[in-house]
Every structure is written in structure tokens, then in C-alpha cells.
Design the sequence.
């Protein structure tokens, strides 16, 4: 479910970017997400009281704040700055590198080892990313052509998201997915608001169309609040490598929406590159379900 909803995020974001800048669009997205999180905050506090959960330590609060900064203002401002410079289809296909980044993160930070097949898959995914950024130069209906800068910004945001995932995973061991998701989004939104208002000023209100408002509400409630909660709940109950396979839904659905609804154009190299990324992701996530996978990213 998280993968399906995340796959619509770039599409809704592109609709809103027609009428406002990146900072204001991302801020509105998270303001709507925060509204969706308020019932979750109440549920999390009530559940914690009933289970007599351990109080948050200073170290855990520090990890939560760092995770919130990485996962909300830094990740999303970079990601949608990239989207503003490329097409929905290209940005979505670049998200196909995320399962590979998860596997690489597990190797570097969780002690899991990749065999030769894994390293071949990582190499294939890298080649696929290069083919995507070099393989399409036609603009879609929105008049935006794929660009190296835009695609690389999306990949950079995914690298930052890896830190967010790792830190959230560690926090959920003691405090559960509801509390970590709710407090993380609210804290991240507060940081985002402070930055955007200081840099870009107050967001527009009166000149925003109904289409943009609906896109912002959908991206906030469905593609941010619901997806983050679903993802955190899921990754709390299954190994991250197994969860990673469902992230492949996002690039597939996002690319389809970009091509079918926004008129994006994908050249042959981009199609081949997307295929390599998805093949590498499936290879890494379907393999390795034995033994040490159960403690991956713990």
C-alpha cells in the first residue's frame, strides 16, 4: 500500500509545482500531512500510556530530531527541487535505486555481506541510473525536459532517506511505528516551516487553484502521512530487504502516470536503464531471505 501511494507523489507534486515554488509546495504537503497525523498522535500517546512504554531518552530525542531533519526538510526539498528540473517518469525511475541503496546500507552499517550476485546487481543499477539521465531529452506536456541535475538531486535525496530509514528502524524497537511516525512528521514539519518561511516567505493562498489544493491535500494525507505510517509499520514487522521489493511499485506506477497523464517521453536508453534498476532491485530483495535477513537494519 505504501508503494502504491508513494508512486502517486511525484504526479501530485508536479501538478502543484505549476502554481508555486518547491519550498511552498513541500510545506503545504507536510502541513496537510501533519493534520492527518493528529489522530495518530493521540492514538500513540494513549497506546503508550496503556503499555507503560519507556520514556524517551535524550539520545533518542536527538536521533528523532536528526531523523526528522533528514527525512522531511532536507530529503523532500532536494527531491522536489530535482522533480522541478526533470520529468515525473525520470524521477520515478530514479526511485528504483532505493532498494539497492537499502542493500548497500545494510552491508555498510548492519554487517550484512553482499555476494558476487549482489555486487553485479549494484553495478547494473548504477549503469541503469546513468542510462536514464543520459537517455531522454524530450519534454513532456509540462514543458520540462529530463536533466542531469534534476535526476541526480532525486538520487541524492534517496541517499539521505536511507539515514532516515535506519534511524527510524532503531527508534521503533522501543517506541513503535505510531509514535515514531507521528512525532517525526510533526517535528520535521516545524523545521520545514521555519526554513521555507525564512527563505521563500509565506506560502500563497488566494491564487492557488482547486486542482492544486486537491493535489496538495492528496500528496500530504495519502502520499506522506499514510505512506510513512504504513512503511514504518511494515518495516517494523518484516526485514527491510523484504520490504524493499515493494518499493519497486513506486517507480513503475510513477513512470506510468508520467507517460500516460503528463505526456512524458522516455527514450530507449531510459527504458533500458529503468529495466536494469528494477531488475537489480528485485534481485537484491528477493534473494537473501534466510538467516541474517531477519536482523537486517535492526
Sequence:
Amino acid at each position: 500500500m505504501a508503494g502504491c501511494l508513494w508512486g502517486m507523489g511525484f504526479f501530485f507534486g508536479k501538478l502543484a509545482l505549476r502554481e508555486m515554488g518547491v519550498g511552498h509546495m513541500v510545506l503545504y504537503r507536510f502541513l496537510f500531512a501533519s493534520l492527518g497525523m493528529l489522530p495518530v498522535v493521540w492514538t500513540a500517546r494513549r497506546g503508550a500510556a496503556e503499555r507503560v512504554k519507556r520514556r524517551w531518552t535524550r539520545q533518542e530525542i536527538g536521533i528523532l530530531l536528526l531523523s526528522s531533519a533528514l527525512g522531511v526538510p532536507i530529503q523532500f526539498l532536494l527531491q522536489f527541487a530535482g522533480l522541478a528540473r526533470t520529468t515525473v517518469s525520470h524521477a520515478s525511475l530514479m526511485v528504483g535505486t532505493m532498494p539497492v541503496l537499502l542493500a548497500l546500507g545494510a552491508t555498510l552499517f548492519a554487517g550484512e555481506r553482499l555476494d558476487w550476485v549482489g555486487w553485479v546487481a549494484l553495478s547494473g543499477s548504477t549503469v541503469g541510473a546513468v542510462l536514464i539521465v543520459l537517455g531522454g531529452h524530450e519534454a513532456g506536456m509540462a514543458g520540462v525536459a529530463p536533466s542531469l541535475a534534476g535526476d541526480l538531486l532525486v538520487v541524492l535525496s534517496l541517499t539521505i532517506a536511507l539515514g532516515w530509514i535506519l534511524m527510524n528502524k532503531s527508534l521503533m524497537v522501543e517506541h513503535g511505528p505510531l509514535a515514531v511516525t507521528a512525532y517525526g512528521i510533526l517535528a520535521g514539519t516545524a523545521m520545514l516551516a521555519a526554513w521555507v518561511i525564512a527563505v521563500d516567505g509565506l506560502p500563497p493562498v488566494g491564487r492557488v487553484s482547486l486542482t492544486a489544493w486537491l493535489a496538495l491535500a492528496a500528496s500530504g494525507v495519502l502520499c506522506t502521512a499514510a505512506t510513512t505510517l504504513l512503511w514504518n509499520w511494515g518495516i517494523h514487522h518484516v526485514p527491510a530487504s523484504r520490504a524493499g521489493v515493494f518499493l519497486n511499485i513506486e517507480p513503475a506506477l510513477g513512470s506510468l502516470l508520467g507517460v500516460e497523464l503528463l505526456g512524458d517521453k522516455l527514450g530507449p536508453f531510459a527504458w533500458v536503464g529503468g529495466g536494469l534498476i528494477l531488475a537489480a532491485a528485485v534481485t537484491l530483495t528477493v534473494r537473501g531471505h534466510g538467516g541474517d535477513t531477519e536482523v537486517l537494519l535492526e
User: Anything to note?
Assistant: Confidence is low (pLDDT under 50) at residues 137-142, 289-298.
